Amino acid sequence: MPAMKESALTRLARFRPRGLFLLFASATLALAAGWGAIGGAQAPGARAAGSGLPRTADGKPNLGGIWQVMNTAHVNLEPHSAEAGMPGGIGVVEGDEIPYRPEARARRQQNYEKRAQLDPVGKCFLPGVPRATYMPFPFQIAQTASHIAIAYEFAHTGRIIYTDGTPHPGPLDFWMGDSRGKWEGDTLVVDSTHFNDRTWFDMAGNYHSDALHVVERYTLTDGGRRIDYQATIEDPKVFTRPWTIRMPIYKRVETNLQLVDYDCVDFFWSDYLRQKK
Fold it and tell me: What CATH architecture does domain 12-255 belong to?
């Protein structure tokens, strides 16, 4: 079977260029002629009767805007006690415990013991999926009928979810995976695959292999002020079965709010060069 040709947007998703917010704005605007405000143009009377949700011109829930998770999942997905500089949390994993294979659990413990040195995010690598969603930084969604672009404040991270019905391309290796979405009623279902094995799920060393497969569900609720988020994680090399995390994502509504550049690569190299002096 011949390899599928990469689109320009797929090539964009493979890299982490500087000024990603501008690139994302340009790419997304080019996707849909006539697209309006940053979240996607709304049709007249866009709040459908009975649902109370803001909707785009094609009738889908309008996910556009700036959002942020307000929990401690970035510290540890599982229930955890507070440590110096780290808040405790009740966890977001269904059943509380991640179902590791015995040998994989041993590696997870090794990761935990050396987490300050080994966490990929601490080295300014892209956080991966689903970790990018619950990093302690906001992110912005821009929505069209055929694509959804997400710009994360942390480290110029970007992601494009294709909702145009195209399949995953041939074997690739992405930090953020390849994401294909579809609407099931008012829920956006995103299937992501083609990951590398170099990201973690949190600061506690929970990890995966290159066999990672993630299915996310974004359900807009509370009049458009909250997204009920769910991610089901499958990786037969590391886990005994699929497992699921759940959490709310809240819309940020401050006046004149925008993503502020957080270029941790610059911070990393500044610290490195300072230590070399």
Answer: Beta Barrel (2.40)
